[in-house]
Amino acid sequence: MKKILLSLILTFTIQANDIEDKISKMMWDGIEVTWLEDDRFPTYDVIFYFADGALSDGVRKGETDTMFSLMQTGTNRFTQKEIADNLDFYGADVSGKSVHEYSTYAVSGLAKDIIPTMKKVCHLFKDSIFPEKEVAKFRRAAISSRRNLVNSHGKLASLAFREISLSGSPFSFPVQGKISTISKIRSKHLRNKLKYFNEKVKKKIYISGPKKALNIKNIVLNECGWNTKAEYQRTVSYKYKAKKPKIHLITVPKANQAQVAMGKFLAPGEFDNFETLGLTGHYLGGGFTSVLMSELRVKRGLTYSAYAYAGGQKEYGRAVINTFTKVETIDELLSVTKNVLKEKGEGKITQEELLTVKKSLKGGFPFQFESSSSFIKELLFLDHVGHSYKRFFNYNKTLDSATVQDVAQTHKEFSHIMELTSSFLEKNHWPRS
Question: Is 316 helix (H, G, I), strand (E, B) or coil?
């Protein structure tokens, strides 16, 4: 088994060096293009990056995400069915996504069909009209989905906790919007939003595939309706006031479990060392061998799972623990979790524990990027946050250099992770702690 693991690590090291040589950057009339040459399979992946996201929405929160989601619903020339049939004929997958800071539109398929597929995609960017009938259908479905969240306590906890933990920052409102804002979105708003992204927002392109994938250049430059010289990039300036420890209790009817989320907002500068943050999160709640799983599940049977992570985007981050328990044991779960964080912050971490976590992360790291699409998404993210690709290729070395003291210090810095706790349970089961 050790030989197999060693072989996988050595293989990844060799492939990482090869991959680094296969990354090229070029300019297409003002648009930066990153190409990962990959001719292992006759396929391609293209991701269009837009340097603005949901923060552009104003009073109609959810507008940007809705726009990118509904681009295939109709144009001046084609109906939604005709567009879907055409993309299916070429075996193409398309999807749009928006986060607070930026947006993406991803296209993938067979390399031999990249030209007609990209022509269709550019037609969508240039001529999408967002038929009011389809927009109304989307509104009804989205509103219904949010009303049904009360029946999915885990999802409700995640959504509410995000807003609580990010309150006081520009990122607290959900990207998809709420019922009150989704109900305001109309076809004309989506057309105006698309025009804004086409004409004003800075763009980048990420491509993986054989060299022929670069043949889309003239199509992108001439048929997408983009201003290739657009320079607007979303910038955020805010002052975040740290909150005092506080427990938020949210009651739902007939709850037989307490969904628990604990977290700390990370301001700019607090999440730059994302390798150590990831190591700390994995040590706390990254699997069945993690500390919280051992203390909460194995030793005490308080929960089935506990998950922890810490990381950031460009302008904000979060350190979070998610778990759940029976309503009768919420006090004990909170107490045990608090003690674990306190002990680890005091340095009660063994070299053996740390080595086990490092092996787990290093063993799983290569498999996160088996597909080219996953790899170029990572390149896109590193560009967005302003980090060198060396951070990716040197991941294992950085991980090896992390010490027990580094992880203990990270625990200490996040010792107030329980400052924001959301518990979802019936009112008569509120915890005493």
Answer: coil
DSSP string across 36-62: EE--SSSEEEEEEEES--GGG-TTSTT
Residue the block writes with tokens 């989307």 = 138
Give the integer Cα–Cα distance in Å for 84 and 278: 40
Q: Which has the closest alpha carbon to 190: 64, 54, 56? A: 64
Closest CA to 257 of 305, 308, 322, 328: 328
What's the CATH code, domain 22-223? 3.30.830.10
The per-residue pLDDT for range 272-324, each reduced to its tens digit, is: 888 888 898 899 998 888 999 999 999 999 999 999 988 888 999 888 889 99
H or E element that contains 110: strand 103-110
Distance CA(331)–CA(333), nearest Å, equals: 6
Task: Compute the residue count for the chain.
Answer: 433
Domain 246-429, CATH class in plain words: alpha beta
Q: Tokens for 209?
A: 């595939």
**35 in Cβ contact with 151 (< 8 Å):** no
Every domain range in the chain assigned CATH 3.30.830.10: 22-223, 246-429
Pull the structure tokens for residue 126.
Answer: 């240039």
* Amino acid in the structure at residue 65: D
Place of tokens 């069909």: 113
